[in-house]
Amino acid sequence: MLCAGIVGLPNVGKSTLFNAVTESRKALAANYRFCTIEPNQGIVTVPDDRLDVLAKISGTQKIIPSTFEFVDIAGLVKGASQGEGLGNQFLGHIREVDAIVQVVRCFENSDIEHVMDDIDPIRDIDVINTELLLADLESLEKRRNRQQKVAKGGDKKAQAELDLIDRLEPHLSSGKFAVTMEVTPEEKALMKQLFLLTAKPVLFACNVAEDDLAKPDANPWVAKVKQYVENHHDTSAVVVSAEIESELVTLEPEERASYLEHLGVEQSGAGTLIKEAYHLLGLRTYLTTGEKETRAWTIRAGDKAPVAAGVLR
């Protein structure tokens, strides 16, 4: 099962958000650094209003939604690529996920410590990105040293990998993620073997206070993050309040809808985040319905009908 890893600086709301999207209490959410050490893993269901509509048409009571996995990873600090904080452990856990959800703090709260002492989400993003880039550059240098010896023996695959590294190093050194570099299908296959952190697709989650949830664009930090993400990553930024989401999971569905309406919000930020992460992983859904069940089947983007039919069981 593919998984998305939740990353960010300490105390930005990662564990609170993880508990909300997985509707669990697996992750310790506390007001001190590195309250998460070992990754927490949880299965999330993908919201899809079409399932209820089809279930009513078919008269079935059993609904089976699509699922995938979220992983809550320990907070990163400046210098992680050199082993600061839980750096090496943190980076190792990121290598194991298929996509990255980077949580950034976009709210003031004097009761919650910030590792950098003040609120600046763009700086926080740069800290995370810099550590990932430095770790990848170090990894590429080691890979280069190994493959140069092999390439001298006439190994064409090793030479192709060296050529790719020659392109990747200046790209990463300029502050750009590997995932943003244009590559051929052959280079894409080679890049997978490099296990680069910055080759993973990424999206951003702006964690805001309750008062900002109804009008997030009025929050200046959210506006800056969205602009930054659009210009530097060509991806999306989702607005969510981890605090509110943690309260919503304690309510019944009808109560959740009423609470969101009271806040002036149409849908849960966690639900939006889950759907965005699902698509980020390259997953898509098709639906079947009948007397026994209405079900969402997970396929990969680009799968043809015969492949999609093969997931039926």
Short description:
This protein has 313 residues and is an alpha/beta fold.
Description:
The protein has 313 residues and is an alpha/beta fold. The protein is built from 11 helices and 9 strands. The strands form 2 sheets. A 6-stranded mixed beta sheet has the order 2-4-1-5-6-7, with helices on both faces. A 3-stranded mixed beta sheet has the order 3-9-8. A hairpin with a 4-residue loop joins strand 8 (283-289) and strand 9. The protein starts with a strand and ends with a helix.
Keywords:
313 residues, three-stranded mixed β-sheet, 11 helices, 9 strands, 42% helix, flat
Tell me the series of helices and strands, N- to C-terminal. Answer: EHEHEEHEHHHEHEHHHEEH
**Strand order within the widest beta sheet:** 2-4-1-5-6-7
Cα shape: flat
Low-confidence stretches: 27-36
Mean pLDDT, all residues: 86
For the report, how would you describe the main beta sheet? 6 strands, mixed
Helix residue percentage: 40-55%
Radius of gyration computed on alpha carbons: 21 Å
Count helical runs.
Answer: 11
Topology:
Blueprint: E1 3-7, H1 14-21, E2 40-45, H2 49-58, E3 63-64, E4 67-72, H3 87-95, E5 99-105, H4 121-151, H5 156-173, H6 185-192, E6 202-207, H7 220-232, E7 237-240, H8 242-248, H9 253-263, H10 269-280, E8 283-289, E9 294-300, H11 305-309
